[in-house]
Structure formats: structure tokens, C-alpha cells
Write a structure and sequence with these properties.
Undecaprenyl pyrophosphate synthetase, 9 helices, 6 strands, binds farnesyl diphosphate
């Protein structure tokens, strides 16, 4: 199966999943720093509590029927943060992998890392390779950790592949590009959740969220739990997804 066919297959709606449950949730875990500040603690403490919150909620997402959960752990732009915060986050990922990998693997979580791996240390790359390898047969939920990821980077690296392969312009299609992007293995996110009160996408899955439903909450990420998931899913269930088409009653009004 080519990458393009794979992407097309992944875009097909899963008719066995009830409409009210998003098949794929994208998550921006914002507010760790403020959460820590409220407790007079360093920002690292907020990020550490953020990892604990993530591990806590994965099972809830899986139990609700979510098949793909994609979290923004470190953006292409996060390198601009103070050096000690950047190195703290890198260290935190290593510690978290060794602390939680056995649990996540036992819970049936398949882990993938998406993003530009070039700039991260070899130690971190090996930890990710290991996490991906030992969870690759798990099917309960797909956890994708976006690390050194940016939506613009993703579009650009896919375009670079087209150029490198000498693809004629008329053969460059949306499906072709989708098949070369970091999330080619997954359907597009149905629901995009951002915590921490900011209402923006911040260069997360720009291409893939074209038709995602957006949900923003003031809740700071380390406090995120079942109540917020319920609120997000309830809002999602009320949305009418039209993907650019008309509402059925407008497209074909009943004869009176
Ligand atoms: C945004 O909060 C959060 C981040 C930049 C990092 C999120 C990362 C984690 C929760 C760790 C992920 C690690 C693994 C292993 C998945 P912020 O610091 O911008 O918060 P603020 O807006 O309150 O300052």
C-alpha cells in the first residue's frame, strides 16, 4: 500500500463509531507554567504535573472510544524559550518515558512520536524508538506525541519530498501530500481541544485541522480531567459538521 493510499484509507469515516464520539482528538496542553506559578513553584513542576495529567486522561479517552489522541508536547517554536526550560523539557521526556512506558504499554497504548527528529539528542531519539517499538502492536488507543513539531514544518517537509521525488506539478494532490505528512497514518482530527484559555492553533496540525471542531477551555492543563473531557465531548456532540456542504434541510427543503 502506498503512503497516499494509506492516507486516503485513513480519511474514510469510521461508521462503527457513534457520531458523538470524536475518532481523533488533537490536544494543546497549555497552562502548565501558570499552574505552577499559582503554587509558587518553578515552571518545570507545571510541565511534570502536565505529563502526569496526560497519563491520567489517556485511559478516559480510550474508554470513551477515541482511537487517536495527538498531543502537542514541544513545538518547533518552543526552542525560543529560556535554555533551562528547554533542557528541562527534554529531560522530562526522558524521565517520563522510563517512568510511564511500562504502564502505557500494558494499557494497550500505541505510542508514536511525530515531528522533526533531527534536532533532538540521540539519547531522546533512542528512547522514542524504544517506546514506538515496544508498543507497536497495541491497538486500544493511538497516542501521538508531537515533539519538535510545527504545522508549517509538516507541510514544507511533505512539499520537499515532492520536489526530491521529481513529482510533476499536476500529480501533486491533497491526497499525495497528506500521505507524506507526519500524521499520514491517522484520520484528520475531529476535535481540537486547547486548555489554558488561549484561543489559537499555534502552528499545531494546520493542514489536518481544516475541518476539526474547536474547543477551548480556561482549565489549566495539569487540572484537565474527566469533567473537561465530558464538557468537550458534549460541545462536540452539539456541532453540526458539514465539511463545506449545506445543511440537509437547506440543500433539499421538504415540500410543504
Ligand atoms: C504549554 O504550557 C505547555 C508546553 C509548552 C509543554 C507541554 C508539555 C508537556 C505537558 C510534557 C509533555 C511530555 C510528554 C512526555 C508527553 P506553558 O508552559 O506555555 O504554560 P503557560 O502558558 O501557563 O506559561
Amino acid at each position: 500500500m502506498t503512503a497516499a493510499t494509506l492516507a486516503t484509507a485513513a480519511q474514510e469515516p469510521n461508521t462503527s463509531t457513534p457520531a458523538a464520539v470524536p475518532r481523533h482528538v488533537a490536544l494543546v496542553m497549555d497552562g502548565n507554567g501558570r499552574w505552577a506559578k499559582q503554587r509558587y513553584m518553578p515552571r518545570y513542576f507545571g510541565h511534570k504535573s502536565g505529563v502526569d495529567a496526560l497519563v491520567r486522561v489517556i485511559n478516559t479517552f480510550a474508554d470513551r472510544g477515541v482511537e487517536y489522541l495527538t498531543v502537542f508536547a514541544f513545538s518547533s517554536e518552543n526552542w525560543k524559550r529560556p535554555a533551562d526550560e528547554v533542557s528541562g523539557l527534554m529531560g522530562l521526556v526522558l524521565v517520563s518515558v522510563s517512568k510511564y512506558l511500562t504502564k502505557l504499554a500494558g494499557d494497550g497504548v500505541r505510542i508514536r512520536i511525530v515531528g522533526d527528529r533531527e534536532a533532538v539528542s540521540e539519547k531522546l531519539r533512542k528512547a522514542w524508538d524504544h517506546a514506538e517499538e515496544i508498543t507497536k502492536h497495541n491497538t486500544r488507543i493511538n497516542l501521538s506525541v508531537a515533539f519538535n513539531y510545527g504545522g508549517r514544518w509538516d507541510v514544507m517537509q511533505a512539499c520537499r519530498q515532492a520536489l526530491a521525488e521529481g513529482l510533476p506539478p499536476e500529480q501533486l494532490t491533497e491526497d499525495w501530500l497528506s500521505g507524506r505528512m507526519a500524521m499520514a497514518f491517522a484520520p484528520d482530527p475531529d476535535l481540537f481541544i486547547r486548555t489554558g484559555g488561549e484561543m489559537r492553533i499555534s502552528n499545531f496540525l494546520l493542514w489536518q485541522t481544516a475541518y476539526s471542531e474547536l474547543f477551548f477551555t480556561e482549565c489549566l492543563w495539569p487540572d484537565f480531567g474527566i469533567a473537561e473531557i465530558d464538557a468537550a465531548f458534549a460541545a462536540y456532540a452539539r456541532r453540526e459538521r458539514r465539511f463545506g456542504t449545506l445543511r440537509p434541510s437547506v440543500a433539499a427543503p421538504e415540500a410543504s
